[in-house]
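Summary: Need help interpreting a holo structure output

Steps to reproduce:
1. Submit the protein chain below together with the SMILES for flavin-adenine dinucleotide.
2. Request a joint structure prediction with the ligand placed.
3. Inspect the structure token block that comes back.

Expected: a single structure record containing both the chain and the bound molecule.
Actual: see attached output.

Input attached:
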Amino acid sequence: MNESVSQDYDIIIVGAGMVGATLACALGQQGFRIGLIEVNEPNFDWPADSVDQRVSAITCASQKIFESIGAWPLMCKQRVSPYRDMRVWDATGSGSVHFDCAQLGEPLLGHIVENRVILFGLHEQLQKLDCVDLITPASVTQLDIELEQARVALDNGQQLTAKLVVAADGSRSKLRELAGIETSGWSYEQHGVVAHITTSKSNQETAWQRFMPDGPLAFLPLSDDNSSIVWSTTPEHADQLLAMDEADFLDELQEAFGDHLGRMLKCGPRAAFPLRMQHAKKYTLPRLALLGDAAHTVHPLAGQGVNLGLADAASLAEVIVDARQQRQDFGAHRILRRYERWRKGENLAMLSTMDGFKRLFGSTQPLMKWLRNTGLHLTNSTSPLKNMIMRQAMGMEGDLSRLAKGQTLNEEQ
Ligand SMILES: Cc1cc2nc3c(=O)[nH]c(=O)nc-3n(C[C@H](O)[C@H](O)[C@H](O)COP(=O)(O)OP(=O)(O)OC[C@H]3O[C@@H](n4cnc5c(N)ncnc54)[C@H](O)[C@@H]3O)c2cc1C
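--- attached output ---
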């Protein structure tokens, strides 16, 4: 990466998380001059036998995006875990669904990847790009939108300008706040407890999810044949789960999940994250675009959050590259609105679906209980419906960007 930081860029991206780093790779590989601002200095030095607490279910569409920018082989060299089956069932009834990749004629349904492995692959690719300056540790303190450019001030005293500023700084986006963009949404009154769990039986390359009244409990398969859990539950219960000693925690986990994976033997460090549904009222202003969690956050029950953000990044990159190709000002609002029109509807549909699922499965009313169990039975026995849901969950439906189709940004449509 360049030591000397130029003050003027084509594009400033705030946030070098999974979504911001993906956009920086895609556009940097097209020769755009990019200032990538990250508050937490990335650290890729971890003990070989440790597992990241945070993992993501990566869809086939997201894998294609990573392949298109050359980051996927680097992630695979670290470790990624394919999953071929998914089993979902309701704790309060007999309804269940079994999704199987063979039924779809696909080799797998997706991969579970540690977040730090995703970031490692992306940052390795970024380091090869002289036109990308990673400015870290640094945070934005001021944003001024002018006619021809946007100007940002950083907490280290630097002043940067660019034709376009992108907010990829997560759900509590400072840039969104500075731009005065409001959000709608609410707290789910749930926290997601995450941990690495060693079980006596193999994970069977299967993603398991049991819906309980307080929230879903997911076991996601890892390459060490163990699993990473996301246990969504009330904030009070989450606090208790974090405070318990390991043996008590494993006992409670066993009781909640049953013996599908044998005995719960060991647990890594535990952490909890508050869960919110949040949607920005606007994704764009002149010279500004929001994407990833800065634009939307969704319940993790279907593992879609980062996948939506990666789809945003791939779509925005395409809109920008096409505008430059046609000698248009890619920071102009009418160009950025193309990105907003493309992504906002699809994201809203996913947010609403996840919200509906969360309510349906969280209800203790007899009618809702009947409805969800009947729905699960029906889905399981109706192949076209099941296949449609699966293809949607794999990111293979909708208006896909060129990168998500495995093409290059320059490819003719
Ligand atoms: C428990 C849990 C499980 C999940 N599981 C899945 C899953 O299986 N699959 C899935 O698709 N999604 C999952 N998600 C959602 C997923 O983690 C998020 O959607 C994803 O992290 C969003 O990525 P992002 O890059 O937009 O934001 P972030 O990951 O939040 O990255 C934002 C980046 O911006 C930086 N930053 C923040 N503020 C500033 C600032 N002011 N200046 C500079 N830099 C800044 C941060 O340090 C960070 O690097 C899960 C979420 C939770 C809570």
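--- end attachment ---

Reviewer comment: Residues 333-362 form the longest helix (30 residues). Residues 14-20, 37-40, 56-57, 139-140, 168-170, 174, 192, 194, 230, 273, 292-293, 300, 303-307, 309 surround flavin-adenine dinucleotide (CB under 6 Å).
Status: needs-info
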